[in-house]
Amino acid sequence: MSAGSSTVHQGISRAVILVALMLFAVLPLLSMLTAALAPQNSTPPGLAWPEDPQWNNFVDAWTAANLSALFRSSVLIVLGVVPAAVAMATAAGYGLAQLNIPGGKLVNALLLVGLTLPFEALITPLYYNIRSMGLLGTRWAVILPLIGLLMPFGVFWMRSSFLTAETALTEAAKIDGANPWQIFRQIQLPLAVPAVSALTILFFLATWNQYLLPLVLIDDPTMRTVAGGLGAFQGEHGTNIALLCAGSLLIIAPSLIVFLFFQRHFVRALLQGAVK
Amino acid sequence: MWVAPALIMYSVFVLYPLGQSVQFSFYKWDGIGPATPAGLDNWRAIFTEPELFGSVINAFILIIFYTALPVSLGLVTASLIRELRVGTFNTAARVVLFIPQVLPPVAAGIAWTWMFSTEGLVNQALRAVGLESLTRAWLGDFTFALPAVGVIGFWLSLGFCTVLLLSGIGKIDPSLYEAARLDGAGRIAEFFAVTLPGLRQEIAVCATITTIAALASFDVVQIATQGGPGYQTMVPGVEIYRLTFLEQRIGQASALAVFLAALVLLVIWPIQRIGRHE
Amino acid sequence: MRTSKTPSRPSRRTSYRIALPAILAALLASCGAPGAQSPLSDTPETVSTSIGDAPVTLKVLVSTPDVPLYEELGAAFQTKHPNVTVQVTGEDFNNLTTNVPRLISGTEVPDLVRLASFGNLVKDHLLTNLDPYAEAYGWTEWPQSQFASTRVADDGRQRGTGHLYGAGPGFGLTGVYYNKSLAAQIGMTEPPATLSAFESSLEKAKNAGLLPIMVNGKDGGLAYPLQNLQMNYAGSTQVVQDWNYNKQGASIDTSALVDAAATLKGWSEDGYLPEDVNSIDQTQAPARFAEGEGVFFPSGNWQAPTLQGAGKDEFGFFLFPPEEVGDPFTAMTAAGVLAIPAKSEQRDAAAAFLNFIQTDTDARQSTLDLLGLPPAGPSDAPMPDSEPGSLVASTVESFQALLDSDGLVDFMSNSTASMHANTLVPQTQLLVGGKTTPAEFSTAIQDGYENDAEQ
């Protein structure tokens, strides 16, 4: 690090390593893109820009996979899950961190059980319960359980944010006679905005990318999330590589766009949150 | 009041079904007719039915690809690069490395099914460097199907682990490295004396998340191989799905599900201890 | 994405101590044996052959490739009954077979559903007993062999006898397609008459640098030649038929199956199968065969319309050859079974639709044109037209020949609910991958069968 030449040298090797890793990360996507632009029903090579890019494949894939219906459905499910889940997790996180709620320890412990629980462990009874509630096949069948399943992570996330929040202002407000709601609204919530928005993005991705729940709980493929519908699409168009890749890219796009749009915010929040 | 909504949703849709899973695991039930008590039969079957036990073994093998390799490679990268400073290139790197982690795993499954197919990029690359003889349908090959599924998991985990470890290494006090160098430590000694202890927490987080992903994998396997060829890539997640809905062996599915949940806890526990502040 | 949080570290140990009783509490909350529903009645008390005038929506759930056919059949039915709307939904076949039990025990059940096997559906009273409709529509006067595979006995398990639970527009039939120009290259001018002639053609193809057999090993295509070989070696179809129909004590673990497995394994070792056989699925196999990869392609008549469209006169079809000249030909068949869920609210309309697709001339024509399935129905119903000399025509001829000679057998895949996905597919993959011996293979098939039968 001391000699200038070694710094330059290091800089280059750093860049080489990073570029190699970046290539590895995007290569499958690039391969899909070039395949998506190849003529339909052809056998495209793994990675080569087609001579005559068939951008129309994306339009065809949109129709073939019934993506209008799937996107609408995904959006409805996201709208059903994310705001409610974020609100509940925020409230519970605040309650557990800042208010001495009776039984708080127990609640903590209960949530801890769910933190590492694989979704598969619940899917069987969930199916029968949802059915006896008469919700099977409706979007509620995915929305309600998903909210429940997101709670452990969400509550711990918000709780740790509120735990580290500054207390001086809160103390002052308490002395002024503010009630917990006022403190929450006027002091704590504004401070927690970064954590809340990161959680919103995380919940969005978890919902949008969800595959198992819609697959099992919603029979009509057009009412599932796009990820759930993609599986059915793969079964039907397995040989039409171009169409399959185009459809997959369209389905990936929202996750990617949301991530790229919020990435600054997102990566930082996630890195902080993960090791906090 | 504050906690109630979260707790209710959680109890109804997580705790209660979890209890039911435990209960079902002691019954023989096809999901429709009446159930008959089965004692420990379902639990015994996890260890005696090769198909079930094999799926558990496969899940452990996947940990190598989902966890061990990305974490080690991430560590090597991190110690070579040291830190991601602010700058357009570094921000871009961070964002790009993160992409696999934010995509639907289903899409990753489809992308890699294409990559590994007979005409896919992997074989194309092998042909380009004259290794024609190594080309094969990777996901349909008995020897390579499970490692190929592993590569998908490796792809999902690597960027995330690298970014996390890079940001961790940036927080290590530079004076520790100075001190180590003054003591005459070489790069390797420095790695073990400073970097590794300094990254304990980050390593634990990476290992925890990726281990859960490995043990509970479903999406990728269901899309890429459905457990085949033979039972070569069968994992507990897919097995539970099939037992429940195809074979209608609800009791058996539940036993495997509870076993899987317990297994995850058991494996995560020591990892969490490592990451704990002392 | 899940991230582990650590703020509660110091209290984690105590947390678990508190959590345990809480889980126990949750357990207690859910005690009592699951699943004590009162059984549905599966036999309609009154049946009518009239649909009436009130608006009726008939929901039909089939596998995706069949959607165009059923949409056409539905449209034709609507023309005859303007008050009926036929709503066709498609689902990936594997997903469909996996999910049928829960689909039709749920709340929004379809009125007609495509089935592959009956599994526990009859035992659990989820399907409508069609006997009263068979009586009302006069199906009882038709040749009864066409209904054998969809009859289930009172124990809910044995098939081939008992009440009728399904009917369909037409019948599948397996055989072997061949690429005429590649066959000419190896000097094969007419379809092989015996198994040994077939095997020598395979060898010639290999020696000529051609791929002898294209087959979809990923999703069960290997099971067709396997079952044909088994029936050849057994010298009769009785064993496999009893086994398929779940007769008490039936076993397939016989020397015929071991020999069949050995032959199939030998074909793989001799390089007669594609190198990536276990990753080829049922959409890729015909596509690659149509592009000229493979001299032979063991599959079913449902591929005929597509292959005929891909290359007129380029492909031929023959039945899997017997051991000796003069031995009877055999093939697998299955009705494209539609069943009426017991929970359907439109049983009468659904039955009327079933009757329509089996008897209406245009409907029968559509079934053959679109899916390649020859219809059965009344003995005096004319077989729909197919272009003379075409691939479809030759599958129809084969079907009629076998109908007369009693050479049609159900698929081993349909014997139990999970036989196909959990046993036959993986085991045939292991077999051609050299990962299991023929004897182990044979035992594993029987084990999978008994495991399922126990449920």
Low-confidence stretches of chain A: none
- State the largest interface: A-B, 89 and 90 residues
Number of strands of chain A: 0
Our Rg estimate of chain A from Cα atoms comes to 23 Å
Give short descriptive properties of this protein:
heterotrimer; A: 276 residues; mainly alpha; MetI-like fold; 0% strand; globular; C: 455 residues; alpha/beta; D-Maltodextrin-Binding Protein, domain 2; 2 domains; five-stranded mixed β-sheet; four-stranded mixed β-sheet; 16 helices; 11 strands; 11% strand; disordered N terminus
What does the model show?
The complex is a heterotrimer of chains A (276), B (278) and C (455). Chain A has helices at residues 4-36, 56-64, 67-98, 104-115, 120-132, 140-164, 168-175, 180-191, 193-208, 212-217, 226-236, 241-275. Chain A is mainly alpha-helical. Chain A folds into two domains: 4-58, no CATH class; 66-236, Orthogonal Bundle (MetI-like fold). In chain A, helix 6 (140-164) packs antiparallel against helix 9. The longest helix of chain A has 35 residues, at 241-275. The relative contact order of chain A is 0.14. Chain B is mainly α and 278 residues long. Chain B is globular, with a radius of gyration of 22 Å. By secondary structure, chain C is an alpha/beta fold. In chain C, the strands form three sheets. In chain C, strands 6, 7, 8, 9 and 11 form a five-stranded mixed sheet that branches. Chain C has a four-stranded mixed sheet with strand order 2-1-3-10. In chain C, strands 4-5 form a two-stranded antiparallel sheet. Chain C has two domains: 56-170 and 336-384, D-Maltodextrin-Binding Protein, domain 2 (3-Layer(aba) Sandwich); 172-333 and 408-454, Periplasmic binding protein-like II (D-Maltodextrin-Binding Protein, domain 2, 3-Layer(aba) Sandwich), CATH 3.40.190. In chain C, helix 2 packs antiparallel against helix 13 (361-371) and helix 12 (347-359) crosses helix 13 (361-371). The longest helix of chain C has 18 residues, at 12-29. The two termini of chain C are 37 Å apart. Chains A and B meet through helix 1, helix 3, helix 4, helix 5 and helix 6 of A and helix 1, helix 3, helix 4, helix 5 and helix 6 of B.
